[in-house]
TrEMBL record:
UniProt keyword terms in alphabetical order: 4Fe-4S, Electron transport, Iron, Iron-sulfur, Metal-binding, Transport
Domain 4Fe-4S ferredoxin-type: from-to ranges: 1-29, 31-64
Highest taxon, organism lineage: Bacteria
Protein name per its UniProtKB record: YfhL family 4Fe-4S dicluster ferredoxin
Pfam family of the protein (one): Fer4
PROSITE patterns xrefs: 4FE4S_FER_1, 4FE4S_FER_2
GO molecular function: 4 iron, 4 sulfur cluster binding; metal ion binding
NCBIfam families: di_4Fe-4S_YfhL
Cofactor: [4Fe-4S] cluster
């Protein structure tokens, strides 16, 4: 499933540069993840880099955007056609 940034985000700027898909951007109050671009780093890394970089662990799976590994890989392939 795509990830989301929770309301306790402190806008530390650690996650945004780590996203290989450019899915993270500063929203009106906190950073936000564009679910259309979030592949949980499938195709790039073994684990989501934003989760690894977040110092307060405020990035979690988005229950409204359930996707399996095959769906995440398909999204990656649509973002980076070969």
């Amino acid at each position: 499933m795509a990830l989301r940034i929770l309301d306790d985000c402190i806008n530390c700027d650690m996650c945004e540069p780590e996203c290989p898909n450019g899915a993270i951007a500063l929203g009106e109050a906190i950073y936000e993840i564009d679910s259309a671009k979030c592949t949980e780093c499938v195709g790039h890394y073994d684990k989501p880099q934003c989760v690894r970089a977040c110092p307060i662990a405020c990035i979690a799976p988005d229950p409204e955007r359930v996707e399996d590994d095959a769906g995440l890989l398909a999204k990656y392939l649509s973002l980076y056609p070969q």
